[in-house]
Amino acid sequence: PQPSSPGFVYFQRPAARRSGPGAMDAQAFEKLKANLWDFMKTEVYPNELLYFKQVDEIRRRGPSHWRQPPIVEELREKAKARGLFNLFLPVDSAALAGRSGGGLTNLQYADCCEIMGTANHAEFAAEACNCSSPDTGNMEVLARFGTEEHKRRWLEPLLRAEIRSCYAMTEPAVASSDATNIRTSIVRDGDELVINGRKHWITGAGNVDCKIMILMGRTSLDAKPYRQQSQVLVPMDTPGITLVRPMQTFGDDDCPKGHMEILFEDVRVPASNILWGEGRGFEIAQLRLGPGRIHHCMRMIGQAERALSLMCSRASERTAFGQRLSEMGATLQTVAQARADIDQARLLVREAADRMDRLGNTDPYTRKLLSLVKAVVPSMTQKVVDAAMQLHGGLGVCQDTFLPMAFVGTRSLRFADGPDEVHWRTAGRLELAYQQKESPLYKIGRYEHDKSTPFRAKL
C-alpha cells in the first residue's frame, strides 16, 4: 500500500481532505504581488529611517506613549486603499469566522509575507498591512475558536487595526518550550476565572493599544498532562495585571511593542472567556503556533534575500588587494552557498504552507515540515546575514545598514519560536514514527552475505 505521508517521495500529492474557498486566481495574484512590491518600493523602504526616528521619540516620551509611530498609521491607510490589508488570514479561516481576509491560501501568503519581510525592521511592512505578530496568530485563534461575541468584540477591531493584542504563554519559572510545564493558575470561582502567575517575553503587551491578551494557564491538576491547560481571553484593563518591565533583546526593548514581564494577581475574567472549552489549551497552542510561526519563517526568507542583495552589492563595488571582492573565489562561494541555502529553505516553507492548505497542520507530515521549517529558516537567515556582515567589515555592524537589526531579529527568533532543539526533537520523533510504521524502505535492512567460505583458509 502507498504510505500516507510522502516520506522519501517528496512530491507525491495526497488527495486533499479539506474543503472550502479556493485560492485567488493566478492572474489576480500576480497583480497583487506587483502591487505589494510597488508599495514596498514607494512607501516602505524610503520610510525606514523615519520609522526608527519616530520610535526613538516614542521611547524618549515614556511608556504611556508606546504605540505604533505615525508613519505606520499613515502607511496603514495607504495599504488599505491598495487592497493589501489582512493578507495573512487564509480563506479557510476567514470562512470559518464569517469575516473577510486577503483571499489567499497559506501558500500564496508565503510569497507576500516574504516580500513584506524584506523591510527593516522585519515587521515594518507587516505592521502597515496588519499582518504582524502576535496579532495574526491571535486573530486566527479568534477566527477558529472564538464565540460570535468574542469575534465581535475582539476579532473585528483587530482586523480593522483599531487595537493590538498579545499572547501570554512563556513563564520565567519553568521551561515553557514544554507547554505541560505551564504553572500560571486559572481557578474557577462561580461565573468567573481567577488567574495568578507570572509571564515574561509577552510580545506586544507594551503597546498601549494592546487591549486583549490570550493567556495559557493551568485549569486542572488532575487531568491528563495535555488536558490540564486552557486558554483564556483577558482584557488588558482587567485589575490585577502589572506590566513589570520590558525584556531587552541584545539591549533593545523593541519599543513600541515590548516583550513584557507581567504579573497576574487575582485577575478575574468571566468564565465565558475560556476558548474552545476547558482543557483545550494545548491543542489551541499547537494549532496557533503552526501558522503563526511559519509566518515568521516566511519573513526571515525576505530578510535573507535582502542580506544577500546587500552582500552582492558590496562585493561588486569594493576592491582589496588589487581585486574586486566579487572576483575572489571565497566571495563567489559564499554568494552561491547563500543562494542555495535560501532556496532550499524557501522550498521547505512552501511545501509546508501547501500541505497546511490541503491537509491542515495536524497532519503528521505537515507537522514535521512545520518543525523543520522552524528549525531551519532562522538558522539559515542568521548564517546569510552573518556572511553579509563579514563582507561589509565594520560597516556590517553599524547603523548604516539593516544587517545588525536583521541579525538580532533572526538570532532571537531561534528562541522566540521555541528553541531549535525542540523543533529538531519534534521532527525527529515524527520521522522515526513514519519510518517504523510506513516507510517502504525501512525493513529492507542490511545484506546477508554467505560467510561459509573464508577468503583464506587457516594454515
Structural features, described:
This protein has helices at 26-44, 48-61, 70-82, 91-97, 106-116, 124-128, 135-145, 148-159, 281-317, 329-359, 364-392, 403-416, 420-437; strands at residues 164-168, 185-189, 192-203, 210-218, 229-235, 241-246, 259-270, 319-320, 323-324. With 459 residues, it is an alpha+beta fold. Strands 2-3-7-6 form a 4-stranded antiparallel sheet, with no helix packed on it. A hairpin with a 2-residue loop joins strand 8 (319-320) and strand 9 (323-324). Helix 5 (106-116) packs antiparallel against helix 10 and helix 7 packs antiparallel against helix 8. The radius of gyration is 24 Å and the shape is globular. The termini are far apart.
